[in-house]
Q: What sequence folds into this?
């Protein structure tokens, strides 16, 4: 067989596939050989791409290449990023984190599973999402802090707190009475924990001005929490009083962070302009209002997540210049 014959066979297969219906392509994608899969994975139809990933004969090397592809449908990338079979393959995890098509929160959840060498590479890369590179830096800093803490323990030195403490306050009349499951609070806990924050408190309280004020004051003045994140009560309903309570507690407002969250949300829904959320500082604690819906809370927190370490450091008195 000459070198040209395999090329002719490949061309013939490509032409044959091009004449197939979508249903025929899907069937071949799920049962075909490696050559067929290599053609079908580049098909413009996301159902065909998804069928390739479900092929029982898909190899580890193919999964790695798919995880790299920036033309891949987000649903296919999401499938790889949530399938335990493929997440056991370390290079797949690395490529998923690097790929801008990977949903942001899935990429952030995978970051703590990567080795330091890969985190360094991702932190320096201009080809990954900015939030992902920022979180890589945060994780590297956390690992260094943990090593320093371990050294202090072994030498009997004083141990500096390695993580910022965070309290999550869900504000909901129904939630506080057990009539509605809190979905936002647990999701925020997971996001912040993955980002390296220590969840020191989590509570559900009613939409009551006095209760909200007292809760915030206690968390800041008594518990000495570094960051308090509220979810709920930021809209226009008569019982939505979280911003009013926050305004009574904070000593400085940080309008840029609240504006950034609204601006990011406006790209997805015009209802974002109805948010009255505040961000502010009381003593050495950052207080952040987020929407009550899980989607809104997640998206808003993700927007400001890269800025939080720097903001908290400044609140604690970091003397370094912001431009550096």
A:
């Amino acid at each position: 067989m000459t070198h040209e014959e395999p090329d002719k066979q490949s061309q013939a297969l490509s032409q044959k596939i091009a004449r197939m219906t979508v249903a025929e392509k899907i069937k071949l994608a799920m049962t075909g050989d490696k050559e067929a899969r290599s053609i079908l994975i580049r098909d413009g139809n996301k159902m065909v791409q998804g069928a390739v990933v479900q092929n029982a004969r898909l190899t580890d090397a193919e999964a790695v290449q798919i995880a790299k592809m920036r033309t891949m449908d987000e649903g296919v990338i999401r499938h790889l990023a949530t399938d335990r079979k493929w997440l056991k393959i370390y290079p797949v995890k690395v490529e998923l984190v690097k790929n801008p098509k990977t949903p942001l929160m899935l990429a952030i959840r995978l970051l703590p599973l990567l080795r330091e060498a890969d985190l360094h590479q991702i932190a320096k890369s201009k080809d990954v999402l900015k939030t992902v590179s920022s979180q890589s830096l945060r994780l590297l800093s956390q690992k260094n802090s943990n090593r320093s803490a371990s050294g202090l323990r072994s030498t009997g030195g004083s141990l500096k707190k390695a993580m910022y403490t965070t309290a999550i306050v869900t504000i909901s009349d129904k939630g506080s009475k057990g009539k509605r499951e809190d979905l936002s609070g647990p999701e925020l806990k997971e996001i912040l924990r993955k980002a390296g924050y220590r969840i020191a408190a989590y509570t559900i309280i009613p939409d009551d001005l006095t209760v909200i004020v007292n809760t915030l004051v206690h968390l800041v003045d008594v518990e000495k929490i570094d960051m308090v994140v509220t979810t709920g009560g930021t809209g226009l309903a008569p019982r939505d009083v979280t911003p009013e309570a926050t305004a009574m507690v904070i000593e400085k407002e940080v309008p840029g962070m609240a504006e950034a969250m609204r601006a990011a949300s406006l790209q997805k829904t015009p209802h974002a302009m109805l948010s009255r959320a505040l961000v502010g500082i009381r003593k050495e604690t950052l207080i952040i209002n987020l929407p009550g819906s899980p989607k809104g809370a997640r998206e808003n927190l993700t927007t400001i997540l890269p800025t939080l370490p720097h903001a908290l450091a400044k609140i604690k008195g970091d003397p370094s210049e912001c431009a550096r």
The beta strands are 165-171, 198-205, 227-231, 252-253, 279-282, 285-290. The chain has a mean pLDDT of 87.
